[in-house]
UniProtKB/TrEMBL annotation:
Organism phylogeny: Eukaryota, Viridiplantae, Streptophyta, Embryophyta, Tracheophyta
Catalytic reactions on record: UDP-alpha-D-glucuronate = UDP-alpha-D-galacturonate
Keywords: Isomerase, Membrane, NAD, Transmembrane, Transmembrane helix
Matches recorded under InterPro entries: Epimerase_deHydtase, NAD(P)-bd_dom_sf
Start and end residues of each NAD-dependent epimerase/dehydratase domain: 99-333
Domain of life, source organism: Eukaryota
Membrane-traversing stretches: 31-55
Official protein name in the record: UDP-glucuronate 4-epimerase
Biological source species: Setaria italica
Amino acid sequence: MRVVEEDLLPSTPGKVKVERPGTMSRHLHRCFASTGTMFLWALFLVAMTATYLSVHSFVDTSSRYFTASWGGLHWERQIRSSASPRRPPGSAEGAGLSVLVTGAAGFVGTHCALALRRRGDGVVGIDNFNSYYDPSLKKARRALLGSHGVFVVEGDVNDGRLLAKLFDVVPFTHVLHLAAQAGVRYAMENPASYVHSNVAGLVSLLEACKDADPQPAVVWASSSSVYGLNDRVPFSEAHRTDRPASLYAATKKAGEEITHTYNHIYGLSVTGLRFFTVYGPWGRPDMAYFSFTRNILQGKPITVYRGRDHVDLARDFTYIDDIVRGCLASLDTAGRSTGTGGKKRGPAPYRIFNLGNTSPVTVPTLVAILERYLRVKAKKNVIEMPGNGDVPYTHANISLAREQLGYKPTTSLEMGLKKFVRWYLSYYGYNRGTHTFRNS
């Protein structure tokens, strides 16, 4: 508006500017000429902007491709080699499985991947190496797997492109899905991570499985936490699981409903395993037995929770080797998926099993066993259990797993903790004489 106002003023103060004939036509000509020029400039700017965005998009896409930790001919050769079964010809166990293990650098994932490789199955792992607990422990597990010929891809199960590429490179016969955000109490600090990993990640994986050709059979880790506020013991697969006590439990229960949906619509063969307090060598540092061990050796106090009316908490502690046998039996007995091209061709198996030790032990008893093997007395702070999602008691009914999987746990808590302590002292380099650790 400022330009227009100035044009209306006389060019010389006190005088009126008189327009000559043809002046208006010259103004109009300039106006249209100016407008045409502006239009051309506008087209030029639009073209330049489009070109910039196109080039920027190409460079950004190319950058992501070239900086990705996966892809390329060498990477594909590593995947194929790791996924190839190595059972001898004519083996009584058959030709061997080709298994994608998610969460392969995790506690259970590492042990299962090693067991599969040792018996001659093909195994490829995937893990995002997040920092929920010390990533160096996960990297040490990856190195252990690598020494046995198991290749672990660094990536996230939420990455649909990566999963599609893996299934394009290898026709996996089975998927053992163990990647998850674990821990009951941490859910109160970072709830979004549980939805991201345990719900969105599961859906992303199932999408890749239902689109794969052939479709793999899926065995995945649910949790005993789904029993929530159930007070009937021992916990049976037939008991209600609609009253979770934590967000972690709720995401695992959601997982059971989601996997049932994919089984029903797409014909995916699905087996869910409800683990009961798994422990052992290479375990998770956030677990009580693990943190108790470190604190006892360092002379720090440990917090022991007690239930209402001074009742000791009890857990159905299950040794890792027993869990591994249950996982492998689930893979071996999983029926085939029946879908093709994302379409169901017939009914497929859907199963859920408890995998526990069926012998609950109180937390004070766990501490006493650790004290004996560590030769150090614990400094205990006994307090009432806070309302953080934990439950006072777990006890697995394993009759269904025993009947259909031949599952039979054989390791007592005493023997299992003895093996764990031996590993712990060796891995962290604890010197009993100086009470110091070589590795922090």
